[in-house]
Amino acid sequence: MGNTTSGYDESGHTSGSSSSSRRSSLANNQTATRNARSQTMNINNTVSSRQRRASSVVGSLLTGTSRAGSSFSRNYDFSNNTDMDTTRTGSSREKQVNKENHYRNLVVKYDECVDGGFLAPYGVHDDEKKLDYNDTTVRQLIIGRKLQPFYLPLEDYEENELSDEELLKILRSTLLHQPYPEDIEKFEDLPGVKNLSKAQLEDASNIDSYIDYSSSKSERKLKKSLIFAARLYKLKSIWQQDENERYLDAKNSFSANNMVSNDKLLLDLYRNGDECPICFLYLPKNFNYSRCCYQPICTECFVQIKRKEPHYQNSHDENELTASEDTIETLVSECAHCPYCATPDFGVIYEMSSSITKTGLGSGTLPSEYTVRTEEKIDSSDSLVQNRRRAQSIPANHKSVVTSDMIRPDWEANLSKAKLKLKKRFAKANTIHMNNRLISSDENDKMKLIEDEMIERAIRLSLAEQPQ
Amino acid sequence: MSGLPKRIIKETKNLILDPVPGMKTDIPDEDNLRYLSVEMEGPGNSPYQGGVFNLELYLPEDYPMEPPKIRFLTPVYHPNIDKLGRICLDVLKDHWSPAFQIRTVLLSIQQLLDTPNPDDPLLSDVAELCKSNNAEYCKIAKEWTLKYAVTKKEV
Questions:
Q1: Which of residues 58-87 of B touch A (CB under 8 A)?
Q2: How far is A361 from chain B (nearest CA, A)?
Q3: Which of A28, A98, A281, B101 is deepest in the core (most CB within 10 A)?
Q4: Tell me: the pLDDT tens digits for A367-377?
Q5: CB A300 within 8 A of CB A150
């Protein structure tokens, strides 16, 4: 099978781009480390020269800490761990590379086929913000038959209305991904996106040439990230078109040995389908089932369900005015609940349909060579799904359960990020407040006192930013 | 998002073909199928009985992962409905689940008219009255219903 399935490995990674990205992030990291050092020295100088006006000390300290603080952590990271981990976000370039890889993994490829389905979503809920799940984990889980593969959904299905030929015709003509709208409003009139070739779009280094350097620093930064996002959106659509064409070629080649599902497999799957209760689309029946109340859910809907943004406990109208520095620690990240019965720690179990045999990735059979439909005998003795109808729920930590937190493991990091952001905001407010106090007072002693206090706060803040 | 999701088409079709009792759903603008108008009858044995309340409902881009946005257009005197018609109801906020449907939401709102929840109010003065002097609250609610929710010729 090796040749037909090049470009993936068992871990679910799309190979190729990842090794080069590692190199570039490393190079980035070295410059970042250098910057961090020079900034650190700056701070030391500033701290030691207390003679200067206190407000300016604090001003530079604060801007210094916010920048140097994050470089500190990178510095630390670099010395300990040269293998870049996505949990620690570093330079913006590194973030971009991670994002680009994520988007590449969201492209549906016909030869990443598992039991007639795929490793990336069709685009039923195609909001990039909500597809922020860990793609590597999800791909691994699908290949490991722990989650239903992403199947191409059918809009309508009436068992008796379609002949086998008609059903196959619909399935064969369905694209791998829902078509992308050409222009979307938020990217309108953005320079550096339209009329560019794929190669130009993929080269992030030329973004700078589209930036108006007379604008302010924050404007430039915003524009840059917007152009990057717009390009990524366009690229994803181009990558998907390329894949659609590859798929078309493979379908038309009729060389029997490839990763295109044969008629028998498609019929076995789609003649045994049902509607997902969330998206109302028709899919093969081997759904994921909620661990708590045994309700079906397709993977496309499952990956949409996630924790809420960090928020205050018991605060019912998100009134941030009541927030203070002391309440930051009460910020919580609430776990995902089952959409059907509201049980916390939402998780699903998946068992392959007993009516088809394994094909594609993680099996010994090509989807084009699928022949057997196993006998209808359902051996329910060791089947979790079959056994637990109306029985009690399966615990979230059971080895067969895939929880919402498993596919978004970064929730803890996000929570601390949200806390840190708030801390920074309070620190800034404090600085402004103290600056005001400073201006109204003439006493030197008092100034000195406040100055010390401010420096102490700034240092505390910079310490808080370092990894625990 | 390209096109209208299957689910929205199915749900609205069902709502129009097989309406919730006491409710009429319509699509006022054929160009915007995410925007629905609803006429809701006030529940029997409540101060809203006899009234027909207009609501507008919008299905956001993220629906059903995000709840529908819905508000009363007809003024309602109710502790959980404010002057702009905004509704304070858990299923429209943090207790929303993608397994709910427009139908579920409409029924919940009708239920809310019948059983106000003054312990989690949007308007504290109405909630106060609702708890301390329920008869007076019912009286005002009935007046509002007559004034705003009953069309003249029906009186």
A1: 61-62, 64-65
A2: 30
A3: A281
A4: 877 876 655 44
A5: yes
**DSSP bridge pairs for A402:** A348
A154 touches chain B (CB under 8 A): no
- Rounded Cα gap, residues A149 and A135, in angstroms: 13
For residues A7 and A15, the answer to whether their CB atoms sit within 8 Å is yes
Best CATH choice for the domain B6-154 from the list 3.10.110.10, 3.40.50.11540, 3.40.350.10, 3.60.20.10: 3.10.110.10
Rg from Cα positions in chain A: 27
Instruction: Please answer yes or no on whether A127 and B94 come within 8 Å at the CB atom.
Output: no
How do beta strands A273-275 and A117-118 pair? unpaired
ipTM of this model? 0.86
Residue pLDDT, tens place only, B27-69: 998 889 999 999 999 998 899 999 999 999 999 988 999 999 9
The one-letter amino acid at A321: L
Reply yes or no: is the peptide bond before residue B64 cis, omega within 30 of 0: yes
Q: Order across the sheet with B35-41: list the strands.
A: B23-26, B35-41, B52-58, B69-72
Report yes or no: A147 and A141 within 8 Å, Cβ to Cβ. Answer: yes
- d(CA B27, nearest CA chain A) in Å: 21
B88 is catalytic: yes
Rg of chain B (C-alpha set): 16
Q: What pTM was computed for the model? A: 0.75
- Residues A348 and A290: beta-carbon distance below 8 Å: yes
Please report, as a single letter, which amino acid is at residue A139: R
Structure token digits, residue A4? 């037909």
